[in-house]
Structures are given as C-alpha cells and as structure tokens.
Amino acid sequence: MSKKQLIRRLFQILIVLVGISFFTFCLTYLAPGDPVRSMYAATGTMPSEEVLEQTREELGLNEPMLVQYWNWLSDCLHGDFGTSYSQHKPVAELLLDRLFPTVRLALLSLALMLAVSLPAGVAAAVWKNKPVDYLIRGITFLGVSMPNFWVGLLLLYVVAMQLKLVPVLSIGTGFEKMILPAVTLAFAMSSRYIRQVRAAVLEELNQDYVTGARARGMKERVILWRHVFPNALFPLITLLGLSLGSLLGGTAVVEVIFSYPGLGNLAVSAITAMDYPLIQGYVLWVALIYMALNLAVDFCYNFADPRIREKRQVEG
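Structure tokens predicted for Nickel import system permease protein NikB:
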C-alpha cells in the first residue's frame, strides 16, 4: 500500500468516524427519558427540580443539540470522552479497564475456533460426500442453528453447575474464568468457519495447478498443505478480521450470561442506566476498532498476495 493510498484510507476512516459519532449523538439526544433523573436514581435519591435543572446546566444538556455535539466532539479529539453518569468515572478509563479482559477473551476464542475449524474444514473437503464430511457438516449445522445464549446456558448448567469443573461466574481474572465464555463464542464461529474453509479448499482443489501437480507425481499431502491450504486462507482473512472486530467490541449476551467484565457487559449496563456519555464513547470506540482492523486486513492482503500488491502499485 503506497503512502498516497494510506493517506486516502485514513481520511476515509476519519469521515466515517465523524458520521458515526454524529448519528450516535443524535440517537441519544432523541432517546426518551431524562439522563439526569436516571443518574440520581442510580444513587437512590431524587433531589428537587431546582437541583435537577442546575445539574442539566452544569452538564450542558440545556444547550442546542449541535452545540452539545460540537463540545463533545472537541473533547473527544483531545482524548476526553466525558464522565459516566452512572459510575462517575471518565469514560476513557472505563473503556480501557474493560478492554484488556475483552482482548484476552477474544484471542482465546479465536485460538479455539482456528484450532477446530481449520483441520475440520480441510477434512470435510478432502473426504467430500463421505461419512466424515456428513458428520462435520451436521455438527456445523447444529452450531449455526443454536444461538450463543442457549449454548452458554447449556455449558453453564452442565460444566459449571453439574460437573463443577469451572466457576459459575466469570468475574475477575484467571484462565479458568474465561473457558466457558470462550468456548461459547468459539462454538458458533467454528461452525461458520468450517463451512468457509471447506468451500475454499474445494475451490482450490479444482484449480489447474492442482491437476498439474498431480500429473507430475507430487504427493497429495504435499499438494494439500504446501499449495492448496495457503491459497485457501486468502478469502478467510477478511472474515477473521471482522470476527476479531466483533469480539473486541464485546459480545454482550455471552458476557452478561457469565458476568464477564468485558466491553459488551459495560455497554448493556450503560444502556440500562441511560448513561449517554458511556454509550457514545463505546460506539465510537467499537467503530474505531473496526476501521483499524479493516485497514490491517488490507495490509495483510497486500503482503500475502503479490497479485494485489502489483495491481495497487500500478493503480497508485
């Protein structure tokens, strides 16, 4: 990727982030309810109307919407996402505190998913329309059909409550507290990726270079792992980036079920408490993660596939 293309992509990311921030701010501004009343309700006390009005004035909620948005956006550009109404802490601090648990959970989920989906997808493609293929596809159909919350509840009941192998709640740090949430997330992802790997490997096995390699007497094992498998991974890079972005944004349902202290759990708490600064900061944070990962995927394609690199050099 040339310097000119990089600057163009960064400018596009900036435009998208501004648009998302404005759209999110409009939604929170138009949402029913009074955030000041919700803020005091969380403390268990409700002051007089004079105090409520004074608080709105201090928070700038009496200003016109465009003025509020400009003030908030200016603060965001300086790294200040505001103060949480419900937790009375800086939004940036709350997001950073929840980021590292979410990163650990995301990486563990992706590792489990890749450990299962890559060999299973290759096996299903190699033994196409044979009992192994039918068995793997049947399991993937089950995995795609079952929602995450149902898988999580089943694992919670069987593994944690009946077998007592792991803690019921995933509060705090520790590998054993990430196992159930990670397996729950990896179960559905593995089912989708097995199908993608199978389709990609089958497509590569039908290419002319595979026929030529077989005609030269090359072993099937060498053809599969040295030529077919690396080429089949190219279409999966984008899907892997999107999956990582989704995981880093927090998986609200799974995190709430297991009480895992991640970004998704924080977002649900913010929505319940009508904590507008925290909601706005979270949406902007997730959008930035997706944009950064999308740019990273482009870099991966650029270095992994020489055809794309040569094409972009000609266009640049």
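The radius of gyration is 24 Å.
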